[in-house]
Protein 1
Amino acid sequence: MTPMPTTDVEAFVPAAIQFNDVEDVIAFLDALGASPMIEPGLVELDHALQCAAELKALRPDDEELQVAGLVHDIAHGRCHIRDHDRVGAEALRPIFGDRVANLVALHVEAKRYLVVADDGYRARLSPVSIKTMELQGGAMNTAEIAAFEAKPNAQDACLLRMADEAAKLAGRDVPGLNAWIDTLRHVASSRS
Ligand SMILES: [Fe+2]
């Protein structure tokens, strides 16, 4: 499967996204090395690798969280930006299991939560991220905050989201995709 370029946050590409196995996901990630990101100066794979590296530093024993960081934006360019969290989660669920899928599904909600719950968070958002948040529903209201906090993976989704914001530095040197292949295969083979 060939990723689509994602240079327009409003882009809608009505293409299905489906993976047959973890090797298919690895090939897709590899192809993201040639896919420009919405954020300037980065390709999609740079962002994925930086996010995963951030999470490995924060939670070195949590491979599922690290893999969720690596694949959280995998549906960028395969659907409207406001749907990429859920579309990606459902494509990944059969491969990596419920926890990874649910973390991917929550990474946009976590942004909408953190802008209300964390005083310093909004300042970390890139201009692109602020624009996409409005397309994704904006800051959460009181009822949405309560519902989000009740979800089992809410706190880990917030960690993923913080890593997401920190993973947009052009030229940053982090381990490449080859460093993640064993972890991807391990999480896929032990999925819940
Ligand atoms: Fe992201």
Note: Residues 2-7 have pLDDT under 50 and may be disordered.
Protein 2
Amino acid sequence: MKTAIAQIRTLAAKAGGTTIPISVTHTDLPTNDWSTLFQTVLCSPDSYLAGESNVFCFASGTSIYQQIFPPNHIAFGYSAITEHWLSRKPCNIPNEIWSVRATGQVRETWAAQAKADWHAFLQYRALEMQPSAQLIIVGSGADAEGNSGAEGLTDLANHILRQLVKDGTLYPTEYEEMAIPTYYRTAQEWKEPFTSDSNFPQGGVLSLDHFGEVTLPDVYLEKFQQDGNAQAFAKAYTGFFKAAYEPCLFVNLSDKRTPESRQQVIDLFSQRLQSALAQDPAKYSCRWRLQLMLISKRPE
Ligand SMILES: C[S@@+](CC[C@H](N)C(=O)[O-])C[C@H]1O[C@@H](n2cnc3c(N)ncnc32)[C@H](O)[C@@H]1O
């Protein structure tokens, strides 16, 4: 955000303008940890607000799959690692929890939901952006084969859940509902709304000016290779998995369970995950695939 503010200031100065006021709106779901966000933005010395005047911050809890801003409002947008979260789980995935592992009709249903959500996202941003406005997207996506790069970890998580069903800890009906509502789009799927044969209605309004792909290094594995501390590796990935997926994975535990029984299932899963991760860090290493996009709204 600091970079974006500096760029806007430079461009405004070149155009001979005085310091223009800049409004920054953070958007996330209503359940986001907004207190931490505001404490960081308002109080951290590293915040983009530190040392700035005429920069104002706001927040919105409206989903990215709805209209967030008035029409022609946004001058510059930035969204990172969010559009792989779908608006809903379109269907269960037999014997799997990860959409990458879905096959046949089930896979098509997930792909169709991801397409509809990407269209909805772009449709609302096209409405909200000012003419010539730019939007940067850092998307968590897939390689050409559809792999996200985290399949070692998510296959392990699925294996542990299936073991929990086998030993009677988890009910089969609970496991059946467990599909993480994320989808990892290939380059082709990200680009689809910008192609001439797409049925995306705002195709003429937005243009995809740049598209790039990177594969992230695994910082936890690199650390393990330096210090040999498999427990630290396992703890880091268990913490990541817990923060990212635990709420959606265990949301459908039977309402007949007591709070203690729910917590026992969740804790047992985490313990088993951590202990398995420590056995073979390289096997469960994640190399996330990112797609980087610069999208602009055509001038009027
Ligand atoms: C991996 S985090 C990325 C957070 C931040 N953009 C960053 O780069 O550090 C994904 C975020 O997307 C949010 N999210 C998921 N679905 C969303 C939706 N439909 N609308 C808005 N935010 C959503 C989650 O609450 C979470 O904070």
Note: The pocket of S-adenosylmethionine is lined by residues 27-29, 32, 63-65, 80-82, 85, 87 (CB under 6 Å).
